[in-house]
Amino acid sequence: MVSAAILLFAAPCAALVTPGTVGTAIRPPPNREEMLVQAAAAVGRARADGVDRHTLRLFLPRGDGLSPPDESWEGGIMQLFAACSPLTRDLLRRLSTEVAGVPPSLNEQRLDVSGVDGESVWFAQSSQPEDDCVGLVQPTPDRLATIRKLCSECGARPLLMVNPQWREGDDPFDALSRKGGLLGALGNALGGKAALQKELSALGFVDVYTLSEYVCRGSRICLQLSYPLSWTARRLDDPSSPELARDHPRLAEIGGTALDGGLRERRLSLAVE
């Protein structure tokens, strides 16, 4: 149930303290540079915990600010790719430079032979092979074999998936794909992602940094995850405002429709007027 999943805060949020990791609550990044700083820090904390396979969902630079990769981008997946690819490159440069102390050599290889699917992989090669990083840009489920191959080749070196082209939330096909037997097989065949998620989990991928936007009762709400903290919700039109909600991992399962419905039914008393 939506209402039982979220912990509400009436007063300004206290620091979200996780010993040895993060001492203050994160806030939605106001610009590209701050988002890269937050994302790199989340990857660094995950690596310190032994996590080397990272999934990130970033907002993309547009104009003077950041926008979610949604249907408002009239150029579709290729316009998103044009914004996401250099963002991934700069994130790898930041990660590799922070580790090795010198700028890495960066090379991009397109994965979509047709040139219209908006997929690539960036390789950051440092002076020491153990400091190399690899970043997949907008991979589709069809790239699972490539992901397996890169996981095998990377070993303990970090492998990032940035803005993968499958949904965050669930739809009926996803629910069906989690069932056993013929129904589960049918759900996966129709686009459910349970089998994909199971495979990625087996490969060691962890969600380390995610930004999502929902519009609730006229206010723009940012759901944010930054490893190892749980999900938080803040108003994007006033990111300095107190935290609206904090959750256990259950919040990751709440789609925009469910969250908006919960607000409308006053299951969540978020003060967003």
Automatic annotation (TrEMBL):
| InterPro entries tied to this protein | Chloroplast_ADK, DUF1995
The signal peptide here is 1-15
Protein origin, superkingdom: Eukaryota
Q: Does the keyword Zinc-finger apply?
A: no
Q: Which UniProt keywords apply?
A: Signal
Q: Cell membrane as a keyword?
A: no
Question: Where do the DUF1995 domain residues begin and end?
Answer: 29-238
Q: What is this protein called?
A: DUF1995 domain-containing protein
What is the organism field in this record?
Emiliania huxleyi
Taxon lineage: Eukaryota, Haptista, Haptophyta, Prymnesiophyceae, Isochrysidales
